[in-house]
Amino acid sequence: MRRFVLETYQSAPAAAKLEPRMQRLGEATQPLSGVPFLRLVRVLAFPADELCFYVCEAESAELVAAGACCAGLTFERISEVLEFEPLKRGVS
Questions:
Q1: Which end of the chain is more exposed for a tag (fewer CB within 10 A), N or C?
Q2: Under DSSP, is residue 11 helix (H, G, I), strand (E, B) or coil?
Q3: 11 — phi, psi (to 5°)?
Q4: Coil, helix or strand for 45?
């Protein structure tokens, strides 16, 4: 499954403000019969920068955008991300 980051700017993204947004996005992304899969993985908030990243798994960026719109989230952009695990030294 591909991963995407939904980038939002919001004033003071405190935990109290993020919880309802996460709930709405989670509800908007519940897999239903015949609907492509979309899952909220985690949220990264940067209060000093008024920046928030929602990390989602989905088949496409369009599906992430549709889920965000259903949840009432406004966003600046959606980017596909690649994850890499750090190399473990001394392991053969």
A1: C
A2: coil
A3: -70, 130
A4: strand
Exposed/middle/buried for residue 82 (C-beta within 10 Å: 0-12, 13-18, 19+): exposed
Domain CATH number, residue 68? 3.30.70.3090
**Of 92, 91, 64, 90, the residue nearest 79 (C-alpha):** 64
Domain around 15: 2-81
Residue with tokens 């719109």: 69
- CA neighbor of 66 nearest in space, from 2, 1, 3, 6: 6
Give the chain's radius of gyration (CA, Å): 15
What are the tens digits of pLDDT across the range 2-25?
A: 999 999 887 655 555 666 776 777
The yes-or-no verdict on residue 37 having pLDDT over 70 is: yes
For the stretch 55-65, pLDDT in tens is: 988 889 998 88
Q: Is residue 34 part of a domain?
A: yes
